[in-house]
Amino acid sequence: MVNDSISVAARDLGVIVMKPMCGREFRDAELAFRFLSGAPRLVPIPGIETTAEIEEIVRVVEERRGLEGDARRRAEETARRLGTAFCRRCGYCRPCPEGIPVTAAMTFAGLRKRMPEEKLRNDFAPKLARTLPNCTECGTCEEACPYDLPTIERIRAVRQEVKELVRTA
Prior knowledge:
mainly alpha, 9 helices, two-stranded parallel ribbon
């Protein structure tokens, strides 16, 4: 993969941007697509669920405004909050040979922040508690992850969190 924009431009190449909304971790389509508008060699392939989402994206792209002022500040703030080591829910880590729901494990921290505690403890955590102990740490998920995330390390941590959460139910 070509990492610097000079090489990309010099070679007259484009770059496909998979998951520009970061698997719904990033909720501001306007900021994402204003950023992308400022980089014409970047071609986004977003997952879109509703007509309203595509209409918003088209509106932003047609405006051809980049990030400046308050929009840049908000984008930088969001980038700091998200960091780089978060799951975008692309699903490339599946299928796991042991049946581990890798994406669920990788996004557990976010679910824990957003899902009501009772629902998490009674519905979601028990399902993970049944499967996560089956992880053999074979590395299939890490090899497949296009973001080079430490999935095995995260599965270990979530296994412990889920165990404690289910124990307190």
